[in-house]
Design goal:
By secondary structure, the protein is an alpha+beta fold. The protein is built from two helices and nine strands, in the order H-H-E-E-E-E-E-E-E-E-E. Strands 1, 2, 4, 7 and 9 form a five-stranded antiparallel β-sheet that branches. Strands 3-8-5-6 form a four-stranded antiparallel β-sheet, with no helix packed on it. A hairpin with a 5-residue loop joins strand 5 and strand 6. The chain is globular. The protein starts with 7 loop residues before the first helix and ends in a 7-residue tail after the last strand.
Length: 152
């Protein structure tokens, strides 16, 4: 058996390069998410902070569930995006009792949906993604709201 000694500096450089690749994909997902929400921002929607954004990685098809608390009768916009190699990213929204209240109507890697929450509570947003043709795909999602002049 032949073993080669790899200089530690080469290992460090490879680790940095692999990490930089990941950062580039996250920047790509963020840029696509920004583009997907551009019209909503123009219509007065603003991103919510805290637990109102999520992200993940995948290599094969699957699903991820995200829970968010929504206020009754408040308008919301949900946008998501995934990186190159992602064939499709879709999501559906269910109200606290499990009934569907909406799903994105777009095709491809940048789903989006505007809705008004019928009641206050914890809603489930279920993301479904198909295969990834890249070594790894990354995705991100953000919840936006539009405050009326009388809301805090």
């Amino acid at each position: 058996m032949i073993t080669a000694k790899v200089p530690r500096c080469l290992v460090a450089v490879l680790c940095v390069l692999v990490g930089a690749c990941g950062r580039a994909q996250w920047r790509e997902a963020d840029a696509k998410l920004y583009d997907a929400a551009l019209a909503a921002r123009g219509a007065g929607f603003s991103p919510l902070s805290g637990r109102h954004n999520t992200f993940g990685t995948f290599t094969a098809g699957g699903m991820t569930r995200w829970r968010v608390h929504l206020e009754a009768h408040q308008p919301y916009f949900i946008a998501a995006a995934c990186t190159a190699g992602c064939d499709s990213l879709d999501f559906a929204v269910s109200e606290p009792h499990g009934h569907a209240v909406g799903a994105d109507t777009t095709s491809g890697p940048t789903p989006r949906l505007e809705l008004i929450a019928p009641e206050e509570g914890d809603y489930a947003i279920t993301f479904r993604y198909t295969r990834c043709t890249a070594p790894q795909c990354r995705w991100a999602a953000q919840l936006y709201t539009k405050r009326s002049p009388s809301s805090p």
